Amino acid sequence: MPLTAAFFSGRPTDQIVKALLGTELIFRSQDGNVGGLIVEAEAYLGDEDTAAHAFGHRQTQANRALFGAPGTLYFYRMRGLILMNLICQPAGVPQGILIRALQPTLGVDLMMQNRTKIGVELTNGPAKLTAALGITDLRWNELALPATPFLLQPRKKPVAIAQSPRIGVSQGSWHDRELRFFVAGNPYLSKSRKRDQDWTTMGWQV
Protein backbone atom coordinates (compact mmCIF):
# COMPACT_ATOMS: atom_id res chain seq x y z
CA MET A 1 0.00 0.00 0.00
CA PRO A 2 1.28 3.51 -0.82
CA LEU A 3 2.34 5.70 2.09
CA THR A 4 -0.23 8.25 3.21
CA ALA A 5 0.00 11.54 5.11
CA ALA A 6 -0.32 9.61 8.38
CA PHE A 7 3.15 8.12 7.82
CA PHE A 8 4.69 11.61 8.05
CA SER A 9 3.32 12.62 11.44
CA GLY A 10 2.78 11.25 14.92
CA ARG A 11 6.44 10.49 15.72
CA PRO A 12 9.77 12.35 15.67
CA THR A 13 11.16 13.23 12.25
CA ASP A 14 14.38 11.25 12.76
CA GLN A 15 12.26 8.12 13.31
CA ILE A 16 10.28 8.85 10.15
CA VAL A 17 13.53 9.10 8.15
CA LYS A 18 14.64 5.66 9.31
CA ALA A 19 11.23 4.17 8.48
CA LEU A 20 11.44 5.73 5.00
CA LEU A 21 14.59 3.80 4.06
CA GLY A 22 13.65 0.91 1.78
CA THR A 23 10.62 2.72 0.40
CA GLU A 24 10.40 2.83 -3.39
CA LEU A 25 9.99 6.35 -4.78
CA ILE A 26 8.16 6.18 -8.12
CA PHE A 27 7.73 9.10 -10.52
CA ARG A 28 5.10 8.52 -13.19
CA SER A 29 6.59 10.80 -15.82
CA GLN A 30 5.15 11.54 -19.24
CA ASP A 31 7.95 9.44 -20.74
CA GLY A 32 7.39 6.45 -18.46
CA ASN A 33 7.66 5.33 -14.88
CA VAL A 34 11.02 5.72 -13.14
CA GLY A 35 12.11 5.22 -9.58
CA GLY A 36 14.25 3.61 -6.93
CA LEU A 37 14.59 2.57 -3.32
CA ILE A 38 15.39 5.34 -0.86
CA VAL A 39 18.76 4.42 0.64
CA GLU A 40 19.82 7.73 2.22
CA ALA A 41 17.99 10.73 3.65
CA GLU A 42 18.53 13.60 6.07
CA ALA A 43 16.26 15.11 8.72
CA TYR A 44 15.89 18.90 9.03
CA LEU A 45 14.23 19.90 12.26
CA GLY A 46 12.91 23.38 11.69
CA ASP A 47 12.90 26.19 14.21
CA GLU A 48 16.02 25.27 16.25
CA ASP A 49 17.99 23.57 13.46
CA THR A 50 20.63 26.02 12.24
CA ALA A 51 20.93 24.15 8.91
CA ALA A 52 17.18 24.19 8.21
CA HIS A 53 15.53 26.65 5.83
CA ALA A 54 12.98 27.42 8.55
CA PHE A 55 15.53 28.08 11.32
CA GLY A 56 14.07 30.61 13.73
CA HIS A 57 10.60 29.86 12.29
CA ARG A 58 11.56 31.91 9.22
CA GLN A 59 8.83 31.69 6.57
CA THR A 60 9.28 33.00 3.03
CA GLN A 61 7.69 32.52 -0.36
CA ALA A 62 10.46 30.04 -1.20
CA ASN A 63 10.17 27.81 1.87
CA ARG A 64 6.40 28.03 2.41
CA ALA A 65 5.97 24.31 1.67
CA LEU A 66 7.83 23.51 4.90
CA PHE A 67 4.85 24.82 6.86
CA GLY A 68 2.38 22.62 4.99
CA ALA A 69 0.58 19.45 6.01
CA PRO A 70 2.48 16.18 6.48
CA GLY A 71 3.18 14.50 3.16
CA THR A 72 3.58 17.80 1.30
CA LEU A 73 6.44 17.97 -1.22
CA TYR A 74 9.09 20.66 -0.95
CA PHE A 75 11.24 21.21 -4.03
CA TYR A 76 13.86 23.95 -4.21
CA ARG A 77 16.84 24.94 -6.30
CA MET A 78 20.38 25.09 -4.98
CA ARG A 79 23.01 26.42 -7.36
CA GLY A 80 20.64 25.67 -10.21
CA LEU A 81 20.05 22.07 -9.08
CA ILE A 82 16.71 20.70 -7.85
CA LEU A 83 16.37 18.92 -4.49
CA MET A 84 13.37 16.93 -3.24
CA ASN A 85 12.02 16.95 0.31
CA LEU A 86 9.07 15.43 2.14
CA ILE A 87 7.34 17.43 4.89
CA CYS A 88 6.80 15.82 8.29
CA GLN A 89 4.81 16.83 11.35
CA PRO A 90 1.54 18.79 11.52
CA ALA A 91 1.03 21.95 9.47
CA GLY A 92 2.94 24.87 10.93
CA VAL A 93 5.76 22.68 12.29
CA PRO A 94 8.43 23.13 9.59
CA GLN A 95 10.31 19.84 9.61
CA GLY A 96 11.26 17.81 6.57
CA ILE A 97 13.33 15.06 5.00
CA LEU A 98 15.81 15.57 2.17
CA ILE A 99 15.98 12.53 -0.14
CA ARG A 100 19.71 12.07 -0.74
CA ALA A 101 20.12 8.85 -2.73
CA LEU A 102 18.20 6.11 -4.55
CA GLN A 103 19.00 2.59 -5.67
CA PRO A 104 17.40 2.50 -9.15
CA THR A 105 14.68 -0.11 -9.64
CA LEU A 106 12.35 1.14 -12.35
CA GLY A 107 12.88 2.73 -15.78
CA VAL A 108 16.67 2.60 -15.47
CA ASP A 109 17.24 3.09 -19.21
CA LEU A 110 15.15 6.27 -19.14
CA MET A 111 16.99 7.48 -16.05
CA MET A 112 20.31 6.99 -17.82
CA GLN A 113 19.01 9.01 -20.77
CA ASN A 114 17.92 11.79 -18.44
CA ARG A 115 21.27 12.04 -16.68
CA THR A 116 23.76 10.48 -19.14
CA LYS A 117 25.43 8.57 -16.30
CA ILE A 118 25.60 4.89 -15.38
CA GLY A 119 26.16 2.83 -12.24
CA VAL A 120 26.15 4.40 -8.80
CA GLU A 121 26.76 7.87 -10.26
CA LEU A 122 23.22 7.80 -11.63
CA THR A 123 21.42 8.52 -8.34
CA ASN A 124 23.95 8.77 -5.47
CA GLY A 125 23.18 12.38 -4.57
CA PRO A 126 20.12 14.59 -4.01
CA ALA A 127 20.43 16.56 -7.27
CA LYS A 128 21.59 13.50 -9.21
CA LEU A 129 18.45 11.55 -8.37
CA THR A 130 16.07 14.35 -9.34
CA ALA A 131 17.90 14.77 -12.64
CA ALA A 132 17.74 11.01 -13.27
CA LEU A 133 14.01 10.99 -12.56
CA GLY A 134 13.56 13.78 -15.12
CA ILE A 135 12.48 16.52 -12.70
CA THR A 136 13.31 19.81 -14.40
CA ASP A 137 11.18 22.38 -12.56
CA LEU A 138 9.36 23.10 -9.29
CA ARG A 139 5.80 22.49 -10.47
CA TRP A 140 5.03 19.97 -7.68
CA ASN A 141 6.35 22.14 -4.86
CA GLU A 142 3.77 22.63 -2.06
CA LEU A 143 1.52 19.83 -3.35
CA ALA A 144 0.41 16.82 -1.30
CA LEU A 145 1.66 13.46 -2.55
CA PRO A 146 -1.75 12.24 -3.83
CA ALA A 147 -2.01 15.33 -6.08
CA THR A 148 1.31 14.57 -7.80
CA PRO A 149 2.79 11.89 -10.09
CA PHE A 150 4.90 10.62 -7.16
CA LEU A 151 4.20 7.43 -5.25
CA LEU A 152 5.90 5.95 -2.20
CA GLN A 153 5.64 2.18 -1.69
CA PRO A 154 7.27 0.18 1.14
CA ARG A 155 9.51 -2.47 -0.46
CA LYS A 156 12.54 -3.59 1.57
CA LYS A 157 14.00 -3.52 5.07
CA PRO A 158 17.64 -2.66 5.76
CA VAL A 159 19.89 -5.09 7.58
CA ALA A 160 21.33 -2.10 9.44
CA ILE A 161 20.68 1.64 9.44
CA ALA A 162 23.70 3.85 9.99
CA GLN A 163 23.81 7.55 10.74
CA SER A 164 26.26 10.42 10.49
CA PRO A 165 26.36 14.21 10.40
CA ARG A 166 24.60 15.67 7.38
CA ILE A 167 26.66 16.27 4.25
CA GLY A 168 27.55 19.87 3.42
CA VAL A 169 26.48 21.32 6.77
CA SER A 170 29.64 23.07 7.93
CA GLN A 171 28.46 25.99 10.03
CA GLY A 172 26.19 26.54 12.99
CA SER A 173 25.68 24.64 16.22
CA TRP A 174 23.91 21.77 14.44
CA HIS A 175 26.63 20.91 11.91
CA ASP A 176 27.73 17.77 13.76
CA ARG A 177 24.29 16.39 14.64
CA GLU A 178 23.89 12.85 13.28
CA LEU A 179 20.75 13.45 11.23
CA ARG A 180 21.82 11.66 8.04
CA PHE A 181 20.47 8.11 7.93
CA PHE A 182 21.40 5.46 5.37
CA VAL A 183 21.27 1.77 4.50
CA ALA A 184 24.63 0.42 5.63
CA GLY A 185 26.55 -1.20 2.79
CA ASN A 186 24.38 0.06 -0.05
CA PRO A 187 26.58 1.07 -3.01
CA TYR A 188 24.38 4.00 -4.06
CA LEU A 189 25.10 6.17 -1.01
CA SER A 190 26.59 9.64 -1.31
CA LYS A 191 30.35 9.51 -0.80
CA SER A 192 30.28 5.71 -0.52
CA ARG A 193 33.67 4.05 -0.20
CA LYS A 194 34.25 0.94 -2.33
CA ARG A 195 35.39 -1.10 0.66
CA ASP A 196 32.01 -0.44 2.35
CA GLN A 197 29.86 -1.46 -0.63
CA ASP A 198 27.93 -4.72 -0.36
CA TRP A 199 27.02 -5.78 -3.90
CA THR A 200 25.56 -9.10 -2.72
CA THR A 201 22.66 -7.98 -0.54
CA MET A 202 22.96 -4.19 -1.15
CA GLY A 203 22.31 -3.88 2.59
CA TRP A 204 18.78 -5.33 2.47
CA GLN A 205 17.26 -8.14 4.49
CA VAL A 206 16.79 -11.25 2.36
Contiguous uncertain segments of 5+ residues: none
CATH class annotation: Alpha Beta
**What is the C-alpha radius of gyration, as a whole number of Å?**
16 Å
Beta strands, count: 8
How many domains? The number is 1
- The CATH architecture category equals Roll
Q: What helical percentage do the residues reach?
A: 10-25%
Q: How do the helices and strands follow one another from N- to C-terminus? A: HEEEEEHHEEE
Count of helical segments?
A: 3
Going by helix content, strand content and strand pairing, the class is alpha+beta
Strand content: 25-35%
Q: CATH homologous superfamily, by name?
A: Methylpurine-DNA glycosylase (MPG)
Main pleated sheet: 8 strands, antiparallel
How does the overall form come out from the CA principal axes?
A: globular
What is the CATH topology descriptor?
Answer: 3-methyladenine DNA Glycosylase, Chain A
Cα end-to-end separation: 20 Å
Q: Give average pLDDT, whole number.
A: 95
Keywords: DNA damage, DNA repair, Hydrolase
Family: Belongs to the DNA glycosylase MPG family.
EC number: 3.2.2.-
Protein name: Putative 3-methyladenine DNA glycosylase
Note down, in words, how this protein is organized:
- With 206 residues, the chain is of the alpha+beta class.
- It has a single domain, classed as Roll (3-methyladenine DNA Glycosylase, Chain A).
- It is built from three helices and eight strands; from the N terminus they run H-E-E-E-E-E-H-H-E-E-E.
- Strands 1, 2, 3, 4, 5, 6, 7 and 8 form an eight-stranded antiparallel sheet that branches.
- A hairpin with a 2-residue loop joins strand 1 and strand 2.
- The chain is globular and about 45 Å long.
- The mean pLDDT is 95.
- This is Putative 3-methyladenine DNA glycosylase.
- Its EC number is 3.2.2.-.
